[in-house]
C-alpha cells in the first residue's frame, strides 16, 4: 500500500466512539416536502375541489329524486355522501390546524434549527443541543391548538343529517343537535310537523321557507298573501317577510316524499291483509 493510500484511509476512518446526537435534523428533501404539502394555496385548492365535488354530487342526487315523483330517497346513498363530506371536513380542519402550527414561534425555531447541516464538523454542536425534534414539537403544538372556526362545509353536513332524519321521520321535528338554517321548526301541531300549508290547508306542492321567521308556506298562497300584507300569516308570528326572503324548502319536499312513500307502503300492507 502506498503512502498516499494509507494517508487517505487514515483521514477517512471514523472514531470508534462516534455516535449520533439525540437531536438530528430532517433531510432537506423531507423539509421541502413538508413545506410543499402544507402550503396554504395548494391545500386550499385541493379541498375546495374535493368538497365541491361531493356537494355537487349530493345536490344532483337530491334534485334528481325530487324531480321524479316515482322515485324514493335511498338512506344508504345519502349516508355515503354525508360520510364523505365529514371525512373531508375532518381532514380540512386538521390541515388548517397544521397551517397555524407552522406559524407558531416554537415550530419556527425548531424549523430554523433543521436548516443546519449535520456533518463531522458540526457533530459536537448537535450533541450539545438539548431540544425536542421538529416532529415532536409539531405534534405537541398540534394537540394543544384548538380551532374555533367551524369546518367550511359544516352547514351542508348538517343539512344532510337533517335530510336523513326527515326521510325516516317525515312528520317529526328535527332534534336540536341536528338543527340548522334548513330546519323546519314550523307549523307544529300536537308535536308533529304539519305537511299542509297554513293558508290553504292543502298539502305542499312547492313549499318555500322564509328566512325571516323560518316558517314554510305554499309558494302561490304566500305570494298572494304578500300582495296585500308583509307579515307572516302564521298565528302568533309577527315577522316581516318579503318575496326576497323566501327560498325553496327542500327538507319539506323530502318530508312529503317520505310521507307519501310510507302511506303507499301502509296501503299495500292493508291490501295484503284484506
TrEMBL record:
TM ranges: none
InterPro entries: Nse2(Mms21) (IPR026846), Ubox_domain (IPR003613), Znf_MIZ (IPR004181), Znf_RING/FYVE/PHD (IPR013083)
Cellular component terms per the entry's GO annotation: nucleus; Smc5-Smc6 complex
GO terms assigned for molecular function: ligase activity; SUMO ligase activity; ubiquitin-protein transferase activity; zinc ion binding
Pathway: Protein modification; protein sumoylation
Location of the SP-RING-type domain: 182-265
Superkingdom of origin organism: Eukaryota
Keywords: Ligase, Metal-binding, Nucleus, Transferase, Ubl conjugation pathway, Zinc, Zinc-finger
Regions annotated as coiled coil: none
One Pfam family it belongs to: zf-Nse
Localization per Swiss-Prot or TrEMBL: Nucleus
Signal peptide boundaries: none
GO BP, one annotated term: protein sumoylation
Keyword Nucleotidyltransferase: no
Family statement: Belongs to the NSE2 family.
Record-given protein name: E3 SUMO-protein ligase MMS21
Amino acid at each position: 500500500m502506498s503512502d498516499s493510500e494509507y494517508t487517505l484511509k487514515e483521514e477517512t476512518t471514523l472514531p470508534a466512539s462516534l455516535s449520533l446526537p439525540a437531536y438530528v435534523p430532517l433531510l432537506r428533501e423531507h423539509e421541502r416536502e413538508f413545506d410543499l404539502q402544507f402550503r396554504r394555496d395548494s391545500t386550499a385548492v385541493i379541498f375546495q375541489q374535493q368538497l365541491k365535488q361531493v356537494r355537487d354530487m349530493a345536490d344532483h342526487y337530491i334534485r334528481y329524486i325530487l324531480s321524479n315523483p316515482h322515485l324514493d330517497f335511498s338512506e344508504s346513498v345519502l349516508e355515503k355522501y354525508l360520510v364523505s363530506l365529514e371525512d373531508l371536513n375532518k381532514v380540512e380542519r386538521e390541515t388548517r390546524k397544521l397551517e397555524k402550527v407552522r406559524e407558531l414561534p416554537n415550530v419556527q425555531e425548531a424549523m430554523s434549527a433543521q436548516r443546519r447541516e449535520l456533518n463531522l464538523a458540526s457533530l459536537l454542536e448537535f450533541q450539545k443541543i438539548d431540544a425536542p425534534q421538529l416532529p415532536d414539537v409539531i405534534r405537541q403544538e398540534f394537540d394543544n391548538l384548538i380551532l374555533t372556526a367551524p369546518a367550511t362545509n359544516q352547514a351542508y353536513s348538517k343539512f344532510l343529517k337533517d335530510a336523513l332524519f326527515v326521510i325516516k321521520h317525515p312528520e317529526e321535528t328535527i332534534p336540536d343537535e341536528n338543527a340548522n338554517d334548513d330546519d323546519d321548526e314550523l307549523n307544529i301541531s300536537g308535536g308533529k310537523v304539519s305537511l299542509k300549508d297554513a293558508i290553504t290547508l292543502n298539502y305542499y306542492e312547492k313549499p318555500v321557507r322564509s328566512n325571516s321567521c323560518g316558517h314554510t308556506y305554499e309558494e302561490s298562497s304566500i305570494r298572494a298573501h304578500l300582495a296585500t300584507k308583509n307579515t307572516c300569516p302564521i298565528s302568533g308570528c309577527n315577522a316581516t317577510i318579503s318575496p326576497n326572503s323566501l327560498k325553496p324548502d327542500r327538507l319539506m319536499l323530502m318530508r312529503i316524499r317520505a310521507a307519501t312513500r310510507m302511506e303507499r307502503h301502509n296501503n299495500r300492507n292493508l291490501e295484503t291483509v284484506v
